[in-house]
Amino acid sequence: MRDWTMIGKPALILIHMQHAITSEAGKLAFLGHAKATRESGIINRQQALLKAFRAKGLPVIYVNAVHKPTSKLPVYGKFWSVMQNMEANLPNSRDIEAIPELAPLPAERVLGNFPFGMFTGSDLDKVLRDEKVETLVLTGVATDMAVLTAVIQAADLYYNIIVPSDASTSASLEAHNAVINLMMPAMALVTPTDDVLAHL
Questions:
Q1: What is the number of domains present in the chain?
Q2: Counting Cβ atoms within 10 Å, is residue 95 exposed (0-12), middle (13-18) or buried (19+)?
Q3: What CATH number should be reported for the domain holding residue 64?
Q4: Is the pTM here over 0.85, yes or no?
Q5: Segments of 120-200 assigned E as strands
Q6: Which is nearest to 154 in space by CA: 184, 198, 112?
Q7: What tens digit of pLDDT does each residue of 162-194 get?
């Protein structure tokens, strides 16, 4: 166990743990994130974090990708070519619902964002400030896309950031490892879920 201290009030944020992306029956399962979610064991670790945060009455917030059909999408990049050619993560669809294993409680906030940054298109910053949250515990998919963007955005807003290293995943294990080991430690405390739970 590492020697560190939880700063202020923490909030747990689950990023894009929704049907379209992380369910094997989801519309975007072919991208590989659903398979990685099941094989990596992140659901069990997120469940452990949920249980601990809920037991202590600490904020739990879900951020799910919601694509409004009127959005004008960029042309370059594999992600955009996929989104141009299919209707996924539309408002009021099953796509944007959290997977059953991680279903939110009635009082927990579920915010919509698009495309990557959890603060983009949502009032997440206001919600966190109103709750007097100082530290964000970030989990979700994909490590090298939405979770990385979340870390960068949160750092720009001067939040303390903790990334449980084994509670996020990506379709590419190589990309996940590169982000977790080489990029995120410059902006966040990166440590296993068990260590986060021990310091909560």
A1: 1
A2: buried
A3: 3.40.50.850
A4: yes
A5: 133-141, 160-164, 168-169, 189-191
A6: 184
A7: 999 999 999 999 999 999 999 999 999 999 999
